[in-house]
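Researcher: I'd like a structural prediction for the single chain below. Treat it as a standalone chain; there are no partners to consider.
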Amino acid sequence: MTDQTTRRFARPLVAVAALLGLLAGAAAVYVRETRSGNGAGGETAAADCAAAQATVGRITPLLKGQVAAMAPQMPRPLPPLSFTNAEGKPQDLSAFAGKTLLVNLWATWCVPCREEMPALDALQRDMGDDRFQVLAVNIDMGGDEKPKAFLDEIGVKALALNRDASMGVFNTLKKEGLAFGLPATFLVDPKGCLLSAMNGPAAWDSPDAKALIAAVKGI
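Model: Treating it as a single chain, here is the predicted structure.
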């Protein structure tokens, strides 16, 4: 076998090995998260997220069309994510317990975010209620003035201005292998378990996106 032939067959094998490594890493993270926590609280969170695997199975066929880039995840609790709400008060995901969340990280300097934000705003306007919320978190450094002007400029009305000027939320999710760039979006169930994730924009006001959210709200 020539060196050229060997290289041709070696490349796919390397790619497969890399994919298997990523899957193994995801499984390891899941095991670590489900075994972490102290006492009954940690065990309960693990059990809740193990049960969410059935939800992932139900919604996976809906991850298509305009939301095809959303990748199903092995359900696990998201790490603590802290930010300030529209009133400037500290908040984290525990404040939204009982709601399905579409967590979106964005910044004013992110061109795809500018394109995506009106669709997220429309999704919140059309489907937001006591069971579902689009939780958009701005990660610009500095004060609130620039993000506020940004939202006013593009006509966002339904989304609250949640902020993390330290970029801690992004860096935490990056360490988990979930955030690589902006926008980054995560579907989280009412018990705080991650269901699916994507990096990049989507048409969140599309029928595909609304069918996905409707399905999760109905579970």
